[in-house]
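pasting for the record
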Amino acid sequence: MAQTQRYAVGSEPGKSSSSIALAVGALAPALAAVGALLANRGVTPPFGGFLLFAAAIPLSLLAIVLALFAFLRARGGRNRSAVFKAGAGLTFAALTLAAVVGLAAPSANYPRINDITTDTEDPPDFVANLKLQSSPGQSMAYRPEFAAIQKAAYPGLTSRVVAFPPEEAFGRMREALENLPNVRVTYASVKEGRLEAIAVSRLFRFVDDVVVRIRPAPEGSRIDIRSRSRVGKGDMGVNAQRIESILATLH
């Protein structure tokens, strides 16, 4: 006949450590979800919500260590309840760690620059969008050291010359911007040959600034585009992909 394992009151092996592991393991996904939700709803700045989201990584690692310790103690003492709690905490933490790291992993494939342009020698300037920043007047100048990095990462991203007049090029570029998801045109001047816009990411509501410059050329028009993230050292390739999407409408 099987015997039920009995322990002295308060002496169950792994009881406390498994409870802590479960609590920390459950807190990790909750923290990631709250960070994303607060940023998405505009309750906190995008970067603040992202930091809460990223904090789930060390919290998950801590929960994994605690869960393994509790699991070994509970298993050694044959405390099934504690083994279950430790396993649950480990599962929560591992899934959260995989999800958060999985979202961030692609950034390793892209250079740590957040400002991309088709003309690195004479990049288009932002004018209207200078006033739309959280700190108006903050420099949005292109950093010269980005040029070599960009050319190595995106060698095909260069100015485009098209065989139609500036007015037609302007109309096509405006339509291309307006058709991009989560993009709003903030300035448009046919006379100046300049369009400016802002793009907002879906989850954390990060803001990128976009400018299109159109100049007359002997063959028709020369088009240059610049896309810049307001925060962060890298952009996970988003700015280059946006420029390529706009240029693709010219084919």
